[in-house]
Design a protein that fits this description.
Distance between the termini of chain A: 29 Å
Order of helices and strands of chain A: HHEHHEEEEHEH
Largest sheet of chain A: 3 strands, antiparallel
Oligomer: homodimer
Largest interface: A-B, 38 and 38 residues
Structural class of chain A: alpha+beta
Radius of gyration of chain A: 17 Å
DNA sequence: TCTCTCCATGTGATTTTATAACAATACGGA
DNA sequence: TCCGTATTGTTATAAAATCACATGGAGAGA
C-alpha cells in the first residue's frame, strides 16, 4: 500500500499489531462483512455509516471525531459535529469500531464478530493503537463478589510501541 | 452513549466497593499516608494538592475536574480550570488518584501504595465507581509478542452496580 | 399505491472538558 | 541570603461532545 504523507504526530502507516500488513483488500472485505451483519440484524448501513467505517479502515489508526468529520465533509456529507458523532456511535454500538477513551479517538475493530472484551495497546509517543484479544477475564471474581453485573469491558494499556522503543533506546 | 444529567443521578452516598463503609477516619488516614509518601519521595504536598485529595476522599466517588474546581474555589483557592487540572494531575501521576477515562472524572485511589494496574467497575446508571485490584496480567503475552512495552494499564468495566441492578430488576 | 410513522440526516448553537501562555510568588539548596 | 526552579493564579482559547429542531427518506400496513 502507498504510504500517505504524514502530519506532525501521525502514527506509522500501518500500526495494527505494529506489524506490516497489506490491507488493500481488507477494507472492502470488512465493509462487506459489516453490510452482511447489518442486514442480518435489521440495521441500516447507510452511506454516512459505511463511509465512516471505510475511513477508519483506510486510516488504520485511531481517528478523532473531528478528523472523521473533516473526511466526511470532504466526501460530501454534513459538516457539523453530530454527523461524525452519530456515525461513530453507530459503529461502536454495533461492534464495528471501538472508542479509545484515552485518546478520545475511534478505531475500526480488528476482530469483528469476535466476542467483545477488547484490549488495546496505545503508544504514548506516536499514538498508534493495536487491538488484542483479551481472552482472560481479569475482573470476573471481583465483580461477582461485589454483585456488579459487567456488561462491557475495555482494557487500555499505555506504553511504547516497538518503533518508538527503538527510537528511545538509541 | 447516553449521558444522564449528573444531578438527577448522583451515586449513593458510599459507592466504593458498593458496600457500606465508614470513612470518617479514612480521610485523615489516607491524607496522612500521602503526606508520608510525598516526604519520602521529595514531593511537595502543597495545600491545593492536599485539599484536592481530601475532597476526593470526602466525596468518595468520581468527580469531574470542574466539580473539583468548584470545591477548591469554595476552599479559597484559585477559580480557573488549571488549578483543578494541575492538582489532579499531581495526584494521578503519583498514584493518589486515578482518572476514569470513561467518565472524564477522577477518584481517590482505593489501594494506595499497591502496585498499580487498577481495574474499575463503573455503573452506567448511577456512575458509581469501584476500584478492584487487577492482579492478573491479561495483556502481558500479547504485548511481549508484539514488542510493546507496557508502562501503565487501566481496565474499565461498565455495567450495573448492585443497587441499580435491584432497581432494574423490580 | 398511498400514507403514516419512525428513524436518520443536516444545521446552528451551546455545553463540557482540557490546555496554552505568562506573570507573580513561594520553596529549598548553594 | 541569593538563585534557580517549581508552583500558583489568571486570561484566553482550543478541543470534544451534546442539545434542539427542522427536513427528508425508508419501510410497514391499509
Amino acid at each position: 500500500m502507498t504510504r500517505l504523507p504524514r502530519a506532525e504526530n501521525t502514527p506509522p502507516a500501518d500500526p495494527v499489531g505494529f506489524e506490516t500488513h497489506d490491507h488493500r483488500t481488507c477494507i472492502s472485505a470488512a465493509t462487506k462483512a459489516a453490510e452482511t451483519q447489518c442486514k442480518a440484524e435489521g440495521l441500516r448501513f447507510t452511506p454516512v455509516r459505511r463511509k465512516a467505517l471505510e475511513i477508519l479502515l483506510q486510516e488504520h489508526r485511531a481517528l478523532g471525531a473531528y478528523e472523521m468529520l473533516d473526511r466526511l465533509r470532504d466526501a460530501g456529507f454534513g459538516s457539523q459535529p453530530p454527523v461524525a458523532y452519530r456515525a461513530l456511535e453507530f459503529l461502536v454500538t454495533h461492534g464495528f469500531a471501538h472508542k479509545i477513551e484515552r485518546l478520545n479517538a475511534f478505531i475500526a475493530c480488528a476482530h469483528p464478530g469476535a466476542s467483545h472484551a477488547p484490549a488495546f495497546m496505545i503508544c504514548r509517543e506516536c499514538h498508534s493503537v493495536a487491538e488484542a484479544q483479551s481472552t482472560r477475564d481479569t475482573l470476573g471474581d471481583a465483580a461477582r463478589s461485589a454483585g456488579f453485573r459487567i456488561e462491557r469491558t475495555v482494557l487500555e494499556a499505555e506504553g511504547l510501541c516497538p518503533a518508538c522503543t527503538e527510537t528511545a533506546d538509541t
